[in-house]
């Protein structure tokens, strides 16, 4: 189907917004769609999948907004109902029954995530999901996000001695945890210099222990499943914390897990080394 360009003006539409809770069952939310007007649905996480029940409606993500879906009728005055299904990055599953209305009662619907009681103290946890995304393995994406937020909120010091410090930058592992074959690593980056530390990229790699600091050979990348508070800059005299969720990971004694933090347009690169013994000592959540 040819891609249609819809108006994306939410400032006025939000005046008519209807707020609903993230669906805890599969009961469809009823929506009204029109031929000449666009309905915007705001989700608590980026949208990864959209399915429409028939050609009588059209739907797609709004340009520049990964969590906004715009919906409208493809034909005037269609009879009966059709359906719309949306899956979000955090595993949320949402289903809607769409009926035609020439003048819909609302032009925006906002789906709110279920936030923890302490959501103001940490990045918000997403709505409880119904879909188990393959990339996360055994654990529900929503559970991973909530666990990341809780580790961030508690800010415990459960690990000592896993750190590197040079050029006025210190990267320290504060905790290593495990739950349902997901490894959580809590990291603090401190900048004690007077020059901001802007992060170009960070990555985890498994490398030979003896060669880890001397060569890029014999290295395997480990891509995080999710990240809480993915830091881009640590300003002068400030600290930032990040929590990573990694897939199940064990390594032999002759290898190490490296966290590399590389400075953009600079040379203050940092590498933290986590041994096999330290990974196996991960605290159960």
| CATH fold-level topology of the largest domain | Immunoglobulin-like
* Count of helix runs: 3
| Biggest beta sheet summary | 6 strands, mixed
- Secondary-structure element string: HEEEEEEEEEHEEEEEEEEEEHE
Count of discrete structural domains: 2
The CA-CA distance between the termini, in Å, is 47 Å
* SSE-based structural type: mainly beta
Quaternary form: single chain
Chain-averaged pLDDT: 82
Based on DSSP secondary structure assignment, what is the total number of beta strands?
Answer: 20
Give the overall form: elongated
What would CATH call the architecture of the largest domain? Sandwich
- By CATH reckoning, the class of the largest domain would read Mainly Beta
Enumerate the spans where pLDDT stays under 50 for 5 or more consecutive residues.
1-24, 115-132
Give the % helix. Answer: under 10%
Residues in β-strands, percent: 35-45%
Radius of gyration: 23 Å
Helix-strand layout with pairing:
Blueprint: H1 10-13, E1 18-21, E2 29-33, E3 39-42, E4 47-52, E5 57-61, E6 68-73, E7 81-88, E8 93-100, E9 108-112, H2 141-154, E10 163-166, E11 169-179, E12 182-191, E13 197-208, E14 219-222, E15 226-228, E16 233-234, E17 238-247, E18 255-263, E19 270-275, H3 276-280, E20 283-284
Parallel strand pairs: 1-9, 2-8, 3-9, 11-20
Antiparallel strand pairs: 3-6, 4-7, 5-6, 7-8, 10-11, 11-12, 12-17, 13-14, 13-16, 13-18, 15-17, 18-19
């Amino acid at each position: 189907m040819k891609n249609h360009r819809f108006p994306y003006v939410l400032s006025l539409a939000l005046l008519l917004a209807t707020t609903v809770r993230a669906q805890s069952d599969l009961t469809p939310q009823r929506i009204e769609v029109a031929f000449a007007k666009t309905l915007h649905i705001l989700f608590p996480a980026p949208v990864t999948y959209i399915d429409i029940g028939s050609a009588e409606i059209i739907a797609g993500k709004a340009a520049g907004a990964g969590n906004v879906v715009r919906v409208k009728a493809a034909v005037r005055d269609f009879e009966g109902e059709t359906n719309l299904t949306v899956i979000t990055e955090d595993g949320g599953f949402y289903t809607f029954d769409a009926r035609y209305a020439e003048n819909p009662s609302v032009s925006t619907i906002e789906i709110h995530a279920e936030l923890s009681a302490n959501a103001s103290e940490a990045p918000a946890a997403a709505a409880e999901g119904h879909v188990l995304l393959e990339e996360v393995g055994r654990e529900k994406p929503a559970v991973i996000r909530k666990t990341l937020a809780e580790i961030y909120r508690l800010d415990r010091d459960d690990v000592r001695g896993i750190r590197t410090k040079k050029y006025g930058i210190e990267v320290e592992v504060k905790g290593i945890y495990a739950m349902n074959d997901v490894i959580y690593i809590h990291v603090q980056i401190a900048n004690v210099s007077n020059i901001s530390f802007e992060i170009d990229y960070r990555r985890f790699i498994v490398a030979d222990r003896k060669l880890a600091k001397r060569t890029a050979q014999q290295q395997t990348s480990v891509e995080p499943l999710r990240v809480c508070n993915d830091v881009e800059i640590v300003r002068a005299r400030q600290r930032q914390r990040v929590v990573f969720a990694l897939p199940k990971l064990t390594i032999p004694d002759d290898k190490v897990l490296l966290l590399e933090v590389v400075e953009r347009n600079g040379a203050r690169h940092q590498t933290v080394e986590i041994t096999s013994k330290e990974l196996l000592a991960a605290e159960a959540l």
